[in-house]
Amino acid sequence: MSLRKFITNKTTAALAVLFTVFANTSAFAQEASVAGAAAAPKVDMGEVYKSVIFYILIFLAVCLFIAIIGKSIKVYELSREAQGKPVGINWNRVHASLFALFLVLGLYGVYWEYTVHGSMLLPDAASEHGKKIDEMFNLTLIITTIVFVFTHILLFGFSYIYRYSAKRKAYYYPHNNTIEKIWTIVPALVLTVLVLMGFLTWRSIFFKTEDPNNKPLQIEVTSEQFKWSIRYPGADGIVGDKNYKLTTATNLLGIDFKDIHSRDDEMADEMVLPVGKPIKLILTSKDVIHSFYMPHFRIQLNTVPGMRTFFEFTPTKTTAQMQQETNDPNFKFVLLCAKICGSGHYNMQKVVRVVSEAEYKTWLAEQKTYLNDDLRKEFNLPVAPAAPKAASDSSATDSAAVKTNQMALNK
Amino acid sequence: MSTIALHDEHNHDHADHGHHKETLISKYIFSMDHKMIAKQYLITGIIMAVIAMGLSILFRIQLAWPDKSFPFLETFLGKWAEGGRIKSDFYLALVTIHGTIMVFFVLTAGLSGTFSNLLIPLQLGARDMASPFLNMLSYWLFFMACVIMMSSFFVQTGPASGGWTVYPPLSIIAKAMPGSGMGMTLWLVSMVLFVASSLMGGINYVSTILNMRTKGMDLWKMPLTIWALFLTAILGILSFPVLVAGVVLMVFDRSFGTSFYLSDIVMGTDILPNEGGSPILWQHLFWFLGHPEVYIVIMPALGISSEVISVNSRKPIFGYHAMVYSLIGITVLSFIVWGHHMFVTGMNPLLGGVFMITTLIIAVPSAVKTFNYLATLWRGNIRFTPAMLFAIGLVSFFISGGLTGIFLGNASLDINLHDTYFVVAHFHLVMGSAAIFGMLAGVYHWFPRMFGRMLNPKLGYLHFWLTFIAAYLVFFPLHFLGLDGVPRRYYAFTEFEFMKKWLTVNVFVTWAAIIAALAQVAFLFNFFYSIFKGKVAPQNPWEANTLEWTAPVEHIHGNWPGEIPTVYRWPYDYSKPGHDADFIPQTVPFSQTMSSNLPHDFEGNAEAEKIQQDWELANPVEENKG
User: Fold this and answer.
1) Residue A56 sits in which domain range?
2) Residues of A in contact with B265 (CB under 8 A)
3) Do B271 and A132 touch (CB under 8 A)?
4) Residue spans with biased composition (Low complexity) (chain A) (predicted)?
5) Looking at residues B263-276, what average pLDDT do you find?
6) Angle at Cα B457 formed by Cα B451 and Cα B460, nearest 5°?
7) Cβ A349–B496 below 8 Å, yes or no?
8) What is the DSSP secondary-structure string of B15-29?
9) pTM over 0.90
10) Does one domain contain both A201 and A55?
11) Do B137 and B69 touch, CB atoms closer than 8 A?
């Protein structure tokens, strides 16, 4: 190989460019490390890493590096031009190859995401309707993944195969009605299937026919910035009326105790649910819109001031079961707020426990009613004169309430 | 082409047109020339995009390192980042203003404002817009809207922070969050100005397209860019007024004690007097605009990419008519799908079912468009100009983001995905990244037309690859956060045990976002440098067919010296068999080309079909041996 050939050879030129760049950067690196070594005894590097100027300098160094590469490419191309040879770098080929590479790496990346991040997701649904949602999700995921992979192979594959070549002319192909009909009708059919399934699932979630032998347990949840208040219905199984105008410092939820159903309503610090029983959530809000979100049960519904929203579901797994299934002794069901509601939005939670029926009954027996002596006075209810007696009375009614509740559950 | 080479521009400029003297102010500031207004829109849009991107980096820093302090944040943000940590209220302000700027100021005004103004007269063969004064007014109202929106960073209580959808009562009650004070008032004022601006623009675009096309330019000879911009303008005209109605009612609720959106509200123990309204009403009014709005954002991008892909594949766009009909389909359907944003907001579940059906139908025209893009690439002769790279990137984002729409449009699945990071990932891909890529494709493609100079392609390549890869790295992992039930607009992931495993992902995403942001420096440098120092552009740098490339490179008032060229053929005669060049501009009469070059297809014309077959026999498909 003659020297001249060696110099004009493409690969050698590329190597030379790389070498120059490398030499430059290593020179920079040396300078930097020298500077760093000199400064090390005096300056705490932690502060340096925090300072903006440090990062600006790094960025400028990167820009310089890119500029050097750019200039070297330019010099290379100009020298090719001066020699009367075709343009140095065939960018069309570079991009075509990059697209092909992107396709391969991208598909691997998607696979990696599906398997690694895909395994960090919510466990299987812990409610009856949640299973249907999960099935639908999986079906949709399969269909969309196939389409995703297929179209991307075509997109980047075509980009690679049909890259520019001066020898070739593109194929004049303005339309083909048959093909167009096919790819209108096929997506339409697939979507019809998905729509039908979705529609039926949606109906089964929101339009339930009540089984008179298995009446759902009513639980009212009231949201406000930034907490949830929970009200259990008490012995009568009915959550009583509320009126926001009755809100006072003692009656924070504005419960209307003139309604007889309200008087036995119980408050709870946590949401405890009996497994396998239908539950009807009554959702309301005091101030702004919040969103009642229990991802493990596939439940979300906004709580809106001025109206009540309802969600019926049946939990199918207890917290203990979930702890076993997920192999995580600290597993907890969560209740979050999913609608932006103010500065505390990110921390608006409540403990949720799903327990066996027996545990639920013992827990329920410990809960207090909302109605207390102060409220009795406020609402002129006839219990104030004989306070001690009333107290024993109320505990008596409480236990009675538990009994009737138990009976209701046993039915 | 030959038609214009004969004319002496300078002569014409003064003789034919009765040119008035242009001062600095009338030329660069209060300009009524559509090309200058397009530049104004573009540069304002770019500046707003950089600001909004900066805001996103700020909140990404908070998400990645919720417990670290960054002293420089305090330097810049003062009390909103005391001790170098962004406050929760300010975090919400950041996401709100980021969203508002990106959706309205960048992707609506910056995208369709720029390209409607530039391309409608140039691609249709008009001297200017139907109403140049209205056009100028439209820009300046937009500019004022931007200024007012940014000024909310300088009020005591901070900018609006109830999310870009500003749902009441949060956005109405000043006690609910500091951003609902003065900042929210400014947001509303800015939005009214913005809607006025986009209405003026829209009316102008529609009337120009309908009335001012040059001789021979019938509707079916219009490039797809114009079709997209036309339908976008119609969408805007029909939907934006509804937002104004909603905004005015909100102004009343906030300032004059009415109760359109408020009822039964207690702040702590303070009972508000409002009664009888419904917060859901705002959501209906907002999303009646809001959903068409996402198509207002994406359709111009789709139009631009149709043009760019066709030009650079050297092939006619596949299924021109199907492309137009699918745009029309999207336009019509987009008015009846708004409820899919409200499946779990307490709207009657019966409606949820209906909106699910209409929503999933809209996926069909979108699928048709995607397949048509792929078919256009098939057997093309693809030149990877920076514009083409961005257009291919757009198709990729449009597929990736569009497919997750099938999950979210399904009411049952939306229950668990609503307001989670899955939604964030979905719309950032399909309308964020895709539309931005469409806009960038347009900038790279029409920069020579706008500024008479070329952008540096190599910086364009760098810009594309960094942005394309980083955008996927940012948004792809976010789907999985959403599938794990992590809600959006969370200030920190530290309060819930199950979210802590995503903290490392957040760090990764933030670094990817920072790289994506820095990659834009390559573009910004290229853009502003090339305006002044770029290579002077040739007449038709991409060898495209459309009319704008027949106008002289040097901008003149009235676009063409002398007569406006007449149009004879559709804009996609690329690589037509029997012609020597691989493109035939729209201005070339049929008589000047071979007999095979009849109007835009061969079907049903025996003679043409025969010529095609002969040509195919004579030119067997050559495999690309690169």
Assistant:
1) 3-89
2) 244, 286-288, 305-306
3) no
4) 388-404
5) 91
6) 95
7) yes
8) HTT-PPP--HIIIII
9) no
10) no
11) no
